[in-house]
């Protein structure tokens, strides 16, 4: 029987060492796994986090090992390439930072053994990802296990796969459960059992081993379906070799699903709208080195919104989290990090990463689509890129005929691009109302695509906008206020709810996440589009907007609580609730009562008197649920509510504004209404676009995407493409803008 031992404790670590050590190092620091060397520098901005090779080392005494014929080391995640050495000899290597891999170490073992692992997250042209809006944390950032097994065992050498595959086929109230296992050694039979959720055996059979594998079909006359969040019922399949030589088990769910271009997603034959979020795995101060409790907290927060689906972006996630998706009934999009930039030398890596993703996660009932790529045409398309996708699409269907394939398309991808003909379903990453345009553009765009492709399921794989602790009574695109984010998502929800043909929609993102190349919103090194902050300590108002739409757990929430100081005599207050009726009072005096049937949505706006400098207490009531907030009358806007950039050479309050003329504080799209403004920007873009390479976005395209930003924000963003503008250069540009009359 196999023994699996956790091997996380007390690894020696070095970032300075350049060569394989011959003995256990004495001057390295000790760390426990999971571990990343980019937990701080990968989140502080500047795009300067360490990317290179670091070393881990640990001793292993043969006398500490249980008696066995073979020994393996299992790595659940090493980013992004790794080589394992045992006593100075290479035992195994792996390219790809997000999947499980194993090394058979038996033949290298002595009485005392030095295990060394070189982990490398250096830039290269063959291992994905290399270009993306998130930090590529280096390290052994998931668990390491030591596995002891006999010579007759279930296979451990197939791409990190569990050695067992379960495929339910449902007919009426019954199900036939096909179970296949792969065997190493000379065992001649395998016994299969199915246990129900209480652990009771409900089916059993024995199958002969032929050419290293065995398979059988077990019949369940009255199958209990896995039915999403309503009833995520799980069975357990157990496979055993004779005489207790080895045993493995896996949970599975019996369910059917369909993705219909007109009716959306159907689970077990019933419409089941997929409305949810995308998730990055990292955390503030921790990076990607998560513990099980971190995964559980993330799942708890996602479930609280009422979401029914998660897009696990942009790579293979921890088995802990896939298990949680099965247990909580989440419907999952799982994908590989084939993202943003096609690398001709990386084809084999896309194939190996997709193979590992599918083989390692085949048994999870939560997963319904395999994602082939994300925004891969961002830097242009090519026949090599298309061929790579055809290969991946065929591979996915060959490895798993039961599931669909998907791609996440960059917003600018034309609706007649040939890549759309490859996967089974598509979704788009759109940011209307953040990088250009306005939120009202989503519905018409989706309707036009649906009319053009009536047989191709369409969804939203990303949509969102950024928000920090900035506030405004007049929120606007690009201001990074919590109020704009809340209003943006209200507008999106109304449009999504009116279009049941959308096969799935995923907010970008559930949590703020590390992106060291970003200089955004006054807190560098992060993408702030999350519904919850990076440290999971604060639920933004937009979180409650989704909770009001999707959750059936009663609650009420007053938005804008952190904007206490307000200048208007009568101020707008938004209240969200999933209740049928909501009442708002100010200092005990009723303001209004509103009902869901009259309002048409779970978002309510009240006009509230705001005349007291000492403050007014607001009380919202919905059924038995209440919430409070305070507003206060002030004569001028609180400067603490206006965005201030961390490390900025200029902030909005440093800029000279001339009445009737433009300044750096104006939106770029407003400046472009003037001919002089167009001429000024033409020169700026001609300079900034140099060196971006073939396939880069055109100046016109970039302005359509980013015109909603102020000129100051736009100049700082363009600085990430090259040299960041100095204070003097920005002031000189402001002087030029001060001479251009408003159009």
Polypeptide structure, described:
- By secondary structure, the protein is an alpha+beta fold.
- It has 13 helices and 43 strands.
- The protein is globular, with a radius of gyration of 28 Å.
- The N and C termini lie far apart (79 Å).
- About 1% of the residues have low confidence.
Task: Briefly characterize the structure.
It contains 13 helices and 43 strands.
Report the CATH superfamily of the largest domain: Glycosidases
As for the CATH topology of the largest domain, it is TIM Barrel
Strand content: 25-35%
Helix vs. strand class? alpha+beta
Question: Which terms would index this structure?
Answer:
single chain; TIM Barrel; 5 domains; alpha+beta; eight-stranded parallel beta sheet; 19% helix; Immunoglobulin-like
């Amino acid at each position: 029987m196999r023994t699996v031992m956790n091997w996380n404790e007390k690894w020696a670590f070095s970032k300075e060492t350049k060569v394989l050590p011959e003995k256990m190092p004495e001057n390295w620091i000790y760390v426990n796994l999971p571990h990343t060397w980019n937990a701080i520098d990968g989140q502080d901005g500047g795009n300067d986090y360490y990317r290179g090779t670091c070393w881990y080392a640990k001793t292993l005494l043969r006398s500490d090992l249980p008696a066995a014929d073979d020994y393996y080391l299992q790595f659940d995640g090493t980013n992004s390439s790794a080589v394992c050495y045992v006593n100075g000899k290479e035992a195994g290597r792996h390219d790809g930072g997000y999947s499980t891999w194993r090394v058979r170490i038996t033949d290298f073992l002595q009485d005392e053994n030095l295990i060394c692992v070189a982990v490398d997250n250096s830039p290269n042209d063959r291992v994905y990802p290399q270009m993306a809006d998130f930090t590529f944390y280096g390290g052994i950032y998931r668990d390491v296990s030591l596995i002891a097994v006999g010579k007759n065992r279930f296979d451990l050498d197939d791409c990190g796969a569990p050695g067992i595959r379960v495929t339910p086929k449902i007919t009426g109230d019954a199900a036939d459960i096909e179970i296949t296992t792969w065997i190493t050694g000379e065992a001649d039979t395998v016994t299969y059992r199915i246990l129900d959720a209480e652990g009771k055996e409900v089916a059993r059979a024995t199958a002969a081993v032929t050419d290293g594998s065995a398979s059988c079909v077990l019949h369940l006359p009255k199958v209990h379906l896995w039915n999403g969040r309503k009833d995520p019922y799980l069975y357990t399949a157990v496979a055993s070799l004779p005489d207790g030589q080895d045993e493995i088990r896996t949970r599975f769910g019996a369910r059917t699903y369909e993705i219909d271009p007109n009716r959306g997603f159907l689970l077990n034959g019933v419409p089941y709208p997929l409305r949810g979020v995308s998730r990055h795995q990292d955390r503030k101060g921790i990076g990607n080195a998560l513990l099980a409790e971190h995964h559980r907290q993330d799942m708890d927060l996602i479930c609280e919104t009422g979401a029914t689906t998660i897009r696990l972006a942009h790579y293979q996630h921890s088995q802990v989290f896939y298990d949680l998706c099965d247990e909580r009934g989440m419907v999952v999009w799982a994908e590989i990090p084939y993202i943003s930039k096609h690398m001709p030398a990386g084809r084999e890596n896309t194939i190996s990463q997709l193979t590992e993703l599918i083989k390692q996660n085949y048994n999870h009932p939560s997963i319904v689509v395999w994602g082939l790529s994300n925004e891969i045409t961002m830097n242009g398309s090519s026949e090599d890129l298309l061929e790579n996708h055809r290969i991946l699409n065929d591979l996915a269907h060959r490895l798993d005929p039961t599931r669909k394939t998907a791609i996440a398309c960059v917003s600018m991808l034309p609706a007649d691009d040939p890549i759309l003909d490859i996967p089974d379903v598509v979704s788009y990453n759109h940011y209307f109302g953040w990088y250009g345009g306005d939120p009202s553009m989503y519905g018409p765009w989706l309707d036009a695509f649906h009319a053009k492709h009536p047989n191709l399921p369409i969804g939203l794989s990303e949509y969102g906008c950024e928000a920090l602790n900035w506030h405004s009574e007049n929120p606007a695109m690009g201001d990074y206020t919590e109020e704009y984010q809340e209003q943006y998502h209200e507008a999106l929800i109304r449009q999504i709810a009116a279009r049941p043909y959308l096969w799935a929609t995923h907010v970008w993102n559930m949590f703020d996440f590390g992106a060291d190349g970003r200089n955004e919103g006054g807190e560098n090194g992060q993408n702030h589009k999350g519904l919850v902050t990076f440290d999971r300590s604060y639920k933004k108002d937009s979180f409650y907007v989704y909770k009001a739409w999707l959750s059936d757990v009663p609650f009420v929430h007053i938005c804008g609580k952190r904007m206490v100081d307000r200048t208007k005599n009568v101020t707008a207050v938004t209240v969200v609730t999933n209740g049928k009726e909501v009442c708002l009072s100010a200092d005990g005096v009723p303001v209004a009562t509103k009902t869901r049937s009259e309002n048409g949505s779970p978002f309510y706006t009240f006009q509230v008197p705001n005349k007291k400098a000492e403050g007014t207490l607001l009380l919202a009531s919905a059924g038995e649920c209440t919430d409070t907030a305070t507003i206060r009358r002030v004569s001028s806007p609180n400067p603490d509510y206006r965005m201030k950039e961390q490390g900025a050479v200029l902030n909005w309050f440093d800029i000279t504004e001339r009445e009737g003329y433009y300044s750096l504080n104006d939106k770029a799209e407003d400046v472009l209404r003037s001919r002089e403004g167009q001429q000024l920007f033409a020169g700026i873009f001609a300079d900034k676009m140099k060196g971006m390479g073939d396939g880069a976005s055109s100046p016109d395209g970039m302005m359509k995407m980013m015109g909603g930003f102020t000129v100051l924000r736009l100049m700082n963003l363009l600085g990430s493409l090259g040299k960041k503008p100095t204070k003097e250069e920005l002031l000189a540009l402001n002087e030029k803008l001060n001479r251009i009359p408003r159009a």
